[in-house]
Specification:
Length: about 575
């Protein structure tokens, strides 16, 4: 592709033909503000915040969609460009509900920052307000149209990245809204609760349901024994909410902070991730040796589970019957742990801290209970947990590191890597290989299933069998794999699918923003922690071994089936 040379604010710039003015300006350190633009996902020029003056053009141009040309002269900071931007943001604010101090996106809102940067102090435009739609139907997400700036980021992510397609613009002009078909409640459509819409929303128009008050109420109730579990991805991200760079692991400090907040026990979901591998790995071996349905597909990601229930219910028998690590933890805590501590399970409250908004939905599924006792009671996202720590006046970064409580705090490196795409597959292969061959792995790192490529494939020699595996992350890639299975073109034995692009490190409840660079840094922190641990294989977890000896007896046994396995529902008619 040929290069073109142009001038931007007096600087000579040479970039490939077809580059937008916005991206060309970045190459020489010139920042043009944006709002609707989302790198690698959306460039539509809808908001007009990125307007610039291009000599020879009759009007200001949206730099995110305006291509460079040879000899072009661009002014990004001219009086006309600044005035245009300011007017655009003032118009957006004129129909925006101004409740910044009480909004969950306060101090992390792109519209708020734009207003500050542009020096907006009053709104000169008064007039009619758009119709307000507030949707609180979902256990995971809340929508407030009065804060929506019609940027369409959520639409692009839902339709292009996740290919769920429940959000889109409706009506025209001033009456335009972003929402569901016929303005149906989000709980009544095929939304999978992944929260990727909330992760890219520049304002507070889509946010996670805030359940912090429920946790405080439980902690303050003297009759309740409140335990907390933290997912693997949390340790590599929650530090960002306290000013740390992406990829900074704060595991020990996080444990100390949660203990100071009043939880009776602080446990690790990685314990039940190791437990999941024991159950899921044995389920895979059983399917392979007895002619069971193949390929078997992982069941850890609740957004993915709801997706297959809606769009591929005919393939549900391919999905592992294992509950997710979150739900396994709750089931074990309210049975095995409750017995050990002599606590009535009905007085135990299990709180989860998850990177995922869909986990809020998962814990409320009717099948996630035993004998009338819910596995998990309350789920907080990473963002909610950080807010709760701040409410408690705890300075996480100043704390000394502490260890998780036992017995449900012991874990291996295999459990840690659950957080990144490919991690569940790698953890399973580490265990399955050694269980089948009775030999030590020649190399514990399965590099072929790591990385951010949308679909990864590998063949692993396990004894006499060539085990063919695939890993997909993001639901558009899940669709591709499911279509191959439907067409009879998938000869895999095992498939890992994570709902969110990058895996749990980029879940819908993680710190905002989450970019591809952020994903890579968080993943690196996860793999670094795996390498630091003395035990890196799930079957080497001594506390999990004790659980089987003392309580469950064996993987896939009667008690394991009752507590740790579940079933799914055809939602194609929903």
């Amino acid at each position: 592709m040929a290069n073109v040379t142009l001038s931007i604010d007096g600087k000579t710039v040479t970039v490939p033909q077809g580059t937008s003015v916005l991206e060309a300006a970045k190459t020489v350190g010139i920042h043009i503000p944006t709002l609707c633009y989302l790198k690698d996902v959306q460039a539509i020029g809808a908001c007009r915040v990125c307007v610039v003056e291009v000599m020879g053009q009759r009007t200001l141009q949206a730099s995110c969609v305006f291509p460079v040309a040879q000899g072009m002269v661009v002014k990004t900071n001219s009086p006309l460009a600044r005035a245009g931007r300011k007017m655009v943001v003032e118009l957006l604010l004129s129909d925006h509900r101004m409740e910044c101090p009480t909004c969950s996106r306060n101090l992390n809102c792109e519209l708020q920052k734009l207003s500050q940067d542009l020096g907006i102090r009053d709104i000169p435009y008064c007039g009619e307000k758009a119709k307000v739609i507030i949707d609180e139907s979902s256990p995971a997400l809340m929508r407030d149209s009065s804060k929506c700036v019609l940027c369409r980021r959520c639409v692009s992510v839902c339709q292009q990245i996740q290919k769920v397609g429940v959000l889109f613009p409706s009506h025209r002009g001033f009456k335009t809204t972003i929402g569901t078909a016929f303005d149906s409640p989000i709980a009544d459509v095929e939304c999978v609760n992944c929260g990727q819409c909330a992760a890219v929303c520049p304002v507070g128009a889509i946010v996670e349901r805030d359940d912090v008050h429920k946790v405080w109420a439980a902690i303050e109730d003297p009759k309740k024994f409140v335990v907390v579990q933290t997912a693997p991805a949390i340790r590599a991200a929650i530090g960002e909410e306290f000013g740390q760079e992406p990829g900074t692991a704060v595991t020990g400090k996080m444990v100390a902070a949660l203990r100071r907040m009043g939880f009776d026990k602080v446990f690790d979901t990685q314990f039940s991730a190791d437990l999941t591998i024991m159950e899921e790995g044995n389920e895979l071996l059983k399917r392979v040796t007895t002619g069971g349905k193949l390929p078997m597909i992982t069941s850890c990601s609740p957004g993915w589970i709801k997706f297959i229930e809606h769009f591929y219910p005919d393939l549900l028998d391919h999905v592992s019957s294992c509950k997710s690590p979150q739900q396994m933890f709750g089931a074990v805590a309210k049975s095995y742990l409750a017995q050990k501590l002599n606590i009535d399970p009905k007085n135990m409250v299990v709180v989860s801290i998850m990177p995922c908004t869909a986990k809020k939905y998962e814990c409320e599924r009717p099948e996630m209970e035993a004998e009338g006792v819910r596995d998990v009671d309350i789920v907080l996202t990473t963002r909610e947990a950080a807010r709760m720590i701040k409410q408690a006046g705890v300075n996480l970064l100043e704390l000394d590191e502490e260890e998780f409580d036992n017995p449900l705090g012991e874990s291996t490196g295999a459990a840690t890597i659950f957080a990144a795409t490919g991690g569940v597959m790698e953890a399973a292969l580490r265990t399955v290989y050694e269980v089948v061959t009775k030999d030590k792995l020649p190399s514990i790192d399965f590099e072929a299933v790591r990385g951010m490529e949308g679909i990864k494939e590998a063949t692993v020699k396990v004894g006499d069998l060539d085990v063919k595996v695939a890993v997909g992350h993001g639901l558009s890639n899940a669709r591709e794999l499911m279509d191959k299975i439907r067409a009879g073109e998938a000869d895999y034995h095992f498939i890992e699918i994570m709902c969110c692009p990058g895996g749990c490190i980029a879940g819908g409840g993680q710190p905002i923003p989450t970019t591809w660079e952020t994903r890579k840094l968080r993943a690196k922190a996860i793999y670094d922690e795996d390498k630091r641990l003395s035990s890196r294989k799930s079957h080497e977890n001594e506390c999990v071994s004790d659980l089987y000896k003392e309580f469950l007896k064996e993987p896939l046994g009667e008690k394991s089936h009752h507590l740790l396995h579940t079933h799914y529902k055809d939602r194609s008619g929903c």
